Amino acid sequence: METLSLLAGGFAVALTPLNIALLLLGCFSGTLIGALPGLGPVNGVAILIPLTFAFGFDATSSLILLSSVYFGAMYGGRISSILLNIPGDEPAVMTTLDGYPMAQRGRAADALAISGVASFFGATVAVIGLTLFAPALARAAIHFGPSDYFALYVLAFITIGGISGVDPRKTLVSALLGLMIATVGLDPISGIPRYTFENYHIYDGVDPIVALVGLFALSEILMLLEKAAIDRAKPIGLDSWLPDVRTIWTTRWAILRGSIVGFVAGVLPGAGASLGSVMAYSMEKQTSDKDGTFGKGDPRGVAAPEAGNNAASGGALIPMLSLGVPGSGTTAVMLAMLISLNVQPGPLLFERQPDLVWGLVASLYMANVALLFLNLPMIGLFSRLMLVPTWALMPIVAAVSFVGVFSISNSGFDLQLMIAFGVLGYLLRKLEVSLVPLVLGLLLGGDMERNLRRAMSISDGDWSVLIASPISITLYILTTAFLGLSIWLARRDHKRTQIRNFEG
Amino acid sequence: MTVRLAGVAIFMIAALYTWYGRDYTASFGDVLGPSVFPVIVGIPAMILSASLAVFPTGQVQWPDSPHMLRQVAALAILLGYALLLRDLGFPLATFGLILGIGIVLGGAPLRAVILAAVFAPALWALFDQVLGLPLAFLGRWFD
């Protein structure tokens, strides 16, 4: 009951005229960003984080603006998945499987409406789960000591790559590179400069926002330059924007199943939204694909992954808000947002800033409602935006990225650093190294080191303190189990491709 | 081959990182000191990158030389912008940036000029006048 009243308080915070205006603005501009080719949720939000400071709102309002941009961009990405067969971000890949065939058969309006309704229900399930479980986890996390936190960070870095089947060594190297970059600058405890090489620009360390914009937005320009200069195929046009309500109703069970599967996947560490949508889709296919219609434009094939993806992104907020440890790319960007707004997530956040936590939860929910109603009538406008050619869009993106980063410190050095991160991001992407662990290492490295050193101060240099509590032992066991599982999966995939290469 | 080279490069960086990290000495009252964490991070990074150099996975397709040339051109434009922004002022530098990147990405030069001529002042007006981020209209060279 207590959490329900807290959630009601959150809605009261989010329902001020200013916050509603920001929410609508965020949803609208987010959908724009998502619908534009070459701009996904992650790089869209990364570019906007520094600019939000310019508005001078308080943390709650800024957070509402940025998260509605985020959700809007995810929704806008659906539009390009369905009309263009180009997913805006990784979780949207599953939506193209049935969404694009539906659009090809003249049912684009239905597909878009289903994805909206399914997102809304997925988010509802996630908000309910968040309300129930996040405060409980935060209360449990109060008992975490410094050595337990250290163990938790180890778990987060091992699991962030997920069970995607990519070489786990690459993910770990990425996280370690992030941790290395995090140690650059003045050491927070002893105050001596580390890895600064007498360059006073980096005494404060590397600003995560500079890294984020370079890694995601600038590397995208370099990726685009690899391809031929021709523009993409034209999106499928819309005959009407009025969807068929009966079709949506037939997907109700798919939405429900997808939401629950997605939510569970989201709460688990290292899974996040991509796994949520993949699991929801494959489960729905197993349950309902009796006539072999999946992959050829089955409405349920759009509904399940959409519900799963949104439920998972909501579920992933639970470990991020209550422990301060994000489990996915989505929540890593959210964490960057919180840290840049000077908000430290963790168990104390629920006690000290309940307005912020529940205001955020309420606004996520409202963003989904807003997107549902905003997008139905305006879908024609957004689908026309997809015709904007890349050569005209990306220079503007570059200019806006520079302005944002320049506004943080007014230094040309940060701009050069951002370009360096752009090159690094491009090279790592070419090597199939995920960038999310690097960002996470950069964001959490300082805290990880501080907790380790605090634990060692308490024990007076005795390393056994790291495995002295049942919490940390449990976390290390989980870490080992997860590591074993991901190595096994990577080996199995490797063998399969070898066999396939051999046969083909 | 690329993955092997990348493994070697990351190994070198991690080794240098660990080597430098060892020398940061502790001040009094700090049990662990500032050098232990870099070593804890650096050594696994060395091991993992070495294993990537010896047992690489995945193939990397690099773009052909005309495309790579375009990437180099784009990087030169971006760097030029970072170096000249404060000398030229925001609208002029941004004009060059949008024009250059637009052409490198395959836009017709005349159209790119129009795009840059419209957006460079428009972005300045949006950020400086409307949003209140201080961006110089004319740079140091015009003082």
Largest sheet of chain B at a glance?
A: none
Domain count of chain B: the total is 2
- What percent strand of chain B? under 5%
Q: Could you tell me the mean pLDDT of chain A? A: 83
Order of helices and strands of chain A: HHHHHHHHEEHHHHHHHHHHHHH
Q: Order of strands side by side in the largest beta sheet of chain A?
A: 1-2
Determine the structural class of chain A based on helices, strands and strand pairing.
Answer: mainly alpha
The stretches of 5 or more residues of chain A where confidence is low (pLDDT under 50) are none
Helix content of chain A: over 70%
**How much is the radius of gyration of chain A in Å?**
22 Å
User: How many DSSP H or I helices of chain B?
Assistant: 5
Distance between the termini of chain A: 61 Å
Radius of gyration of chain B: 23 Å
Q: Helical region count of chain A?
A: 21
Q: Distance between termini of chain B?
A: 52 Å
Oligomer: heterodimer
Q: Can you give the helix content of chain B as a percent range?
A: over 70%
Q: Number of DSSP strands of chain A?
A: 2
Task: Jot down its keywords.
heterodimer, A: 504 residues, mainly alpha, two-stranded antiparallel ribbon, 1% strand, B: 143 residues, flat
Summarize the structure.
The complex is a heterodimer of chains A (504) and B (143). Chain A has 504 residues and is an all-alpha fold.
Topology:
The complex is a heterodimer of chains A (504) and B (143).
Chain A: H1 2-14, H2 17-35, H3 41-55, H4 59-84, H5 93-104, H6 108-141, H7 146-159, H8 168-182, E1 185-186, E2 193-194, H9 208-226, H10 245-250, H11 252-267, H12 272-288, H13 299-315, H14 317-323, H15 329-340, H16 347-352, H17 354-385, H18 390-409, H19 412-430, H20 436-459, H21 470-503
Antiparallel strand pairs in A: 1-2
Helix pairs in contact in A: 1-17, 2-4, 2-17, 3-4, 3-9, 3-15, 3-18, 4-5, 4-6, 4-17, 5-6, 5-13, 6-11, 6-13, 6-14, 6-17, 7-20, 7-21, 8-20, 9-18, 9-19, 11-12, 11-13, 12-13, 15-20, 18-19
Chain B: H1 2-22, H2 36-54, H3 65-88, H4 90-104, H5 109-130
